[in-house]
Predict the structure.
Amino acid sequence: FKEGESYYFKVEPIKWEVIKNEGNYLTVLSESFVSYFWFYENNYKNGSIPYVRKINNESIKGNNYQYSTIRAYLNGYDGTSYEVSNFTNKGFYDIAFSNAERKHIALSNVDNMEDYIYILSAEEAREIGIERLNDGIIDNPYYIALGATAYKFYLRTPGAQSTYLCEINRHQLYIGQTYGGSYCEFKAAMKVSLEQINK
């Protein structure tokens, strides 16, 4: 791709795979990436040393999902209180679904948090099956053009170091841990109701 050139991409509906069936509720995972985005946008706020925030007198590392940029973006939250951007009315939840569709999206319990949209944990990935997830990695040409890697996506589970995250990598068929202080590839999960939810 060349700077100054115009490129056009076909906009297609997001396809979702059912990963859990609970009767009236289905948990689904996007077949392709839904974003190529910061996990935490201010990881190097003070230069080359990973930036650690203080929230309620607790040190919060850059790979903390609760206070991450990607969580705020996926759900349309205002993250300014924990030093990420404000995505109110402009997050993935707001722009990817119509008002009628949002009435079918249920809150999910995600690590004792209630979110509409989330990314998988390493534990959830193991329950679904690593090989199944690897087989299900589908490239999104738009995100690949932006710089996403076509063969992996990240999880919300932190790695051993403060800037590391676990990932699903189809070439190696394992849950590894890779640097998460920059833009990352993500697939989204959510719980949908077969009946309308009053919101």
